[in-house]
Specification:
This protein is an alpha/beta fold. It has a domain at 2-183 and 232-261 and 301-314: 3-Layer(aba) Sandwich (Rossmann fold). The chain is 42% helix and 18% strand. The protein has 11 helices and 13 strands. The chain has helices at 11-22, 39-48, 62-71, 86-91, 93-113, 147-165, 199-207, 235-251, 268-279, 303-309, 317-334, and strands spanning 2-6, 26-31, 54-56, 74-79, 118-124, 170-176, 178-180, 214-217, 229-230, 232-234, 254-260, 266-267, 285-288. The strands form 4 sheets. Strands 3-2-1-4-5-6-11 form a 7-stranded parallel beta sheet, sandwiched between helices. A two-stranded parallel sheet has the order 7-10. Strand 5 (118-124), helix 6 (147-165) and strand 6 (170-176) form a beta-alpha-beta unit. The mean pLDDT is 97. It binds nicotinamide-adenine-dinucleotide and uridine-5'-diphosphate. Uridine-5'-diphosphate is lined by residues 178, 197-199, 202, 214-217, 228, 230, 268, 291, 294.
Length: 336
């Protein structure tokens, strides 16, 4: 049996594919390449030394889903295919709801038609919104503050109704915190578009002299050093969390909503210092104004995943920085 990964050539999907392959699973990948490159499939094949069925197509296309479900013995689907820019979701909400919510509905309908009921969904800590308390646990109220977060919450609500409607559904909705880093082969990693929005890819581009300095978005927050704090998680820990979630849904039906984070927040300044120490590169920076819509601090309560998945994030911030940088050094020779 195989696992279908939608969006499996993207940052998180490709690392989950590598982990699944390392654990002896077969994978099939569907990706429309709107934010990834086909050469990632080649790198995955080199890593696992076997061919990986890859379909270039859209998760909203029922015909391609029918082809995949007819041709391959798919036991479970992991749904990474989604758009993830908070800023773009505010300027083009229809695109985001169509892709992220519409895509999820089309996929679930196709699964139902083909009798496949095991599903893992890429949700996000953004579903929580302004913290009423920290760390966010899974029963913290959900009130996202941007359209991107609302697409994730709407998809979660659909999944909750689906799990109630038919007891065959076994679903894990995984709320990711801030994944960074790269596979230990350094042949897959994060491939941002030209101007990265997120901190780690931006730091990488400053370290590799593609950008002159990092702008720190505000140093007047009520946090340990005034800069924003986040719960960064190594993408390989996140990937292993998916392998554990697959084990869970293989034996336990219903909807399981779980945070995937470390429980440990780090500030922007701590991140810069750790990166500099881990890599020997210096990161010139300037303090700028706050970024609109940024929360000062949020991080996960990671206890539920520990109990339910028997999984916890193990890798340190230093390891995250080192691996991100080592991938950056190889990236230009591997990808265009
Ligand atoms: P990514 O952009 O690197 O990967 C997403 C992949 O999905 C890309 O390869 C893209 O080409 C593909 N895709 C998008 N829409 C598609 C469609 N309609 N049909 C087929 N393929 C499509 O993003 P990522 O960081 O790997 O994120 C994966 C998932 O996790 C997304 O759903 C994202 O919202 C969610 N998530 C990401 C983060 C993060 O910080 N990276 C945090 C929380 C949640
Ligand atoms: N950040 C920053 N400069 C950048 C990018 C991000 O200071 O160029 C800060 C941002 O304000 C936040 C933290 O780094 O406090 C993490 O930002 P990111 O966009 O990576 O994650 P998110 O805010 O979406 O959780």
């Amino acid at each position: 049996m195989s696992i279908l990964l939608t969006g499996g050539l993207g940052f998180i999907g490709s690392h989950v594919a590598a982990s699944l392959l390392e654990h002896g699973h077969d994978v099939v990948i569907l990706d429309n390449l709107c934010n990834s490159q086909a050469s990632v499939a080649r790198q995955l094949e080199l890593l696992c030394a076997k061919p990986i069925p890859f379909y270039e197509g859209d998760v909203r296309d029922n015909a391609i889903l029918a082809t995949i479900f007819s041709k391959h013995p798919i036991a479970a689907v992991m749904h990474f295919a989604g758009l993830k820019s908070v800023a773009q979701s505010a300027t083009d909400p229809l695109l985001y709801f169509d892709n992220n919510v519409g895509g999820t509905i089309t996929l679930l309908q196709a699964m139902q038609q083909h009798g496949i009921y095991q599903f893992i969904f890429s949700s996000s800590a953004t579903v929580y919104g302004i913290p009423q308390y920290l760390p966010y646990d899974e029963v913290h109220p959900t009130c996202p503050i941007n359209p991107y977060g609302r697409t994730k919450l709407q998809a979660e609500e659909i999944l909750a109704d689906l799990a109630v409607s038919d007891k065959r559904w076994a679903i894990a909705s995984l709320r990711y915190f801030n994944p960074i880093g790269a596979h230990p082969s350094y042949t897959i990693g994060e491939l941002p578009n030209d101007q990265p929005n997120n901190l780690m890819p931006y730091i990488n581009q400053v370290a590799s002299k593609q950008r002159p300095f990092l702008t720190v978005f505000g140093n007047d927050y009520d946090t340990k050093d005034g800069t924003g704090e986040r719960d960064y998680i190594h993408v390989m820990d996140l990937a292993e969390g998916h392998v554990a979630a697959l084990r869970l849904i293989q034996k336990s039906a219903g909807l399981h909503t779980l945070n995937l984070g470390t429980g440990q927040p780090y500030s922007v300044l701590e991140m810069i210092q750790t990166f500099e120490k881990a890599t020997g590169q210096s990161i010139p920076m300037k303090i700028g104004p706050r970024r609109q819509g940024d929360l000062p601090i949020y991080y996960a309560c990671a206890d539920k995943a520990k109990v339910i998945l028997q999984w916890e994030a193990k890798r340190t911030l230093k390891e995250m920085c080192e691996s991100a940088w080592k991938f950056e050094l190889q990236r230009q020779s591997l990808f265009k």
